[in-house]
């Protein structure tokens, strides 16, 4: 598992947006990268904030899996139960066959209250 990186200014902005959305009465979920392997484009600790209408800010994968994470986040908001999502190539053979976007990412999605 990769080490958690300190928040960057952009990630801190994402958390501030989540707070603003909550204050405005919007239902919000937070998706956080919790583990990476291989060529994951965002480090552990990266965030994506999503509201129940599918609006979002931030990134957990540079666009690779955001659509799937947003859909899952909307379900998490409705159900109130967190989910651990896993995307990507399951083993190291991807590197031997030359896949340019091999790797794996785990994203934890939780409703913010």
TrEMBL record:
Q: Which residues form a coiled coil?
A: none
Family annotation (Pfam families): XdhC_CoxI (PF02625)
Q: Locate the XdhC- CoxI domain: which residues?
A: 21-88
Q: Which InterPro entries match?
A: MoCofactor_Util/Proc, XdhC_CoxI
Q: What is this protein called?
A: XdhC family protein
């Amino acid at each position: 598992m990769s080490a958690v990186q300190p928040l960057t200014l952009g990630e801190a902005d994402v958390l501030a947006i989540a707070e603003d959305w909550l204050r405005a009465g919007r239902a919000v979920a937070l998706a956080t990268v919790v583990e990476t392997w291989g060529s994951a484009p965002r480090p552990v600790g990266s965030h994506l904030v999503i509201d129940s209408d599918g609006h979002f800010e931030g990134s957990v994968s540079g666009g690779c899996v955001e659509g799937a994470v947003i859909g899952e986040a909307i379900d998490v908001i409705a159900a109130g139960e967190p989910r651990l999502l896993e995307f990507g190539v399951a083993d190291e053979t991807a590197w031997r066959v030359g896949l340019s976007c091999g790797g794996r990412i785990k994203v934890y999605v939780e409703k913010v209250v």
